[in-house]
Fold this protein.
Amino acid sequence: MSARAGAAALTLVAAAFAPAAGAQQQRRQDAPRPAGAPPPVLVVVTINPESRVKADRTAPGAPPAALRAGGWTAFRVQVRNEARVTAFLRVTSANAPSAAGRRDRWLDLRLEPAARLTGRPEEWRTLWLRSRDEGMREARLTFDVGQGTQDMGFRSDVALLFRCRRGGE
């Protein structure tokens, strides 16, 4: 069985057991956004009063986010800054090509604006993601605002599932 056929079979099985609300959310995600509409919120980052960073998927159990293979896709990141931190918010991933020589580097990412947080209780950033490959992919993103700010229990990491398709599909 090819990887594409296996992924298609897995999608069919998952759809059979998915609640109706999940199917409606998937249709909304696949539908084209009106011009000028903001990108969907993918991650909520919370910086607690001790400056520890925690990242959460906005809707646990939500269907996979869609990426265009070979093209950039924008998502919003909500930052809840309880500590009023003014450092840079950084995002990294083991799936991004920061370490040379690994073949499993399929994801490019950048966070904009590349500026310090303002210290306001709520801010927004745009996370740009680009997939090298097609198919179902999982990425682990790690958020931090400097050395020693990872939350205990590695809650600054968030695992995300993506459905990567060619640009016109």
